[in-house]
Amino acid sequence: MGEITQLLDRARHGDPAARERFFASVYAELDQLARRKIGRPGRFTMLDAPGLVHEVYLRIAQQSDLPGNDRRSFLAYASRVMRSVIIDYVRSRRAERHGGDCDLVTLNTGIAGQSFQEPDLLALGDAMESLQRVDERAHWVVEMRYFGGMEIEEIAEFLSISPATVKRDWQKARAFLLQAIQPNLDLA
What we know:
This is RNA polymerase sigma factor (TIGR02999 family). This protein has 188 residues and is mainly alpha-helical. It has 2 domains: 1-100, Rna Polymerase Sigma Factor, Chain: A; 120-183, Orthogonal Bundle (Arc Repressor Mutant, subunit A), CATH 1.10.10.10. α5 (121-134) crosses α8 (163-181) and α6 crosses α8 (163-181). The chain contains 8 helices and no strands. Helices cover 67% and strands 0% of the residues. 22% of the residues are buried. It has helices spanning 3-12, 16-38, 49-61, 71-97, 121-134, 136-147, 152-159, 163-181. The longest helix has 27 residues, at 71-97.
C-alpha cells in the first residue's frame, strides 16, 4: 500500500494530521490536473489552476469522509469535482454577463455577427449527464481522460478493462457528446 493510500485511509478514520498530509501530498497532482484543463491561454479569463485546485479542496474538505479508496480513485473523483467547479464557474459568469437579476437592456453595437462565446461547457455538462445515463463506463472514460488527464493505460488499469476497450469507449463517447452538443450535425 502506497504512502498516499495509507494517508487517505488514516484520514478516513478521523486522523486530522493524516488528512492535512494527504492533501499536501496530492496538491501537486491536483494542480497538474487543473493546469491541463485550464492552462491554455484565453480559455478562461478569471479562473486559474491554483484557484480551481483551492475550490476543489474546499468542496472535498467539507465532506466528512474523503472519497476514494486509493490515490487513483481519489484523483478520478477530484477530476469530476473539477468539471463541476468549471461548469459552475461558467454558469455564474454567463449569468453575470447577462445581467443576473438586473433589468435587461438591449444594446445595438452595430457589429454584425460578432461572437463573444466562452467554450460551451454548459452544453458539455448536460451532454455528460446524458452520456452517464446511456453508457456509464464511457462517461467514466471521458471523466478520467478529458477532465482528469489520465492516459489510456491508466484508465484501463483503473476500470479493469483493456486499452483497446478504453479507446473504443473514448471514440464512442466523443461521437455521442459531439452529437449531443451539436444535434444538427450529420455524422454519417
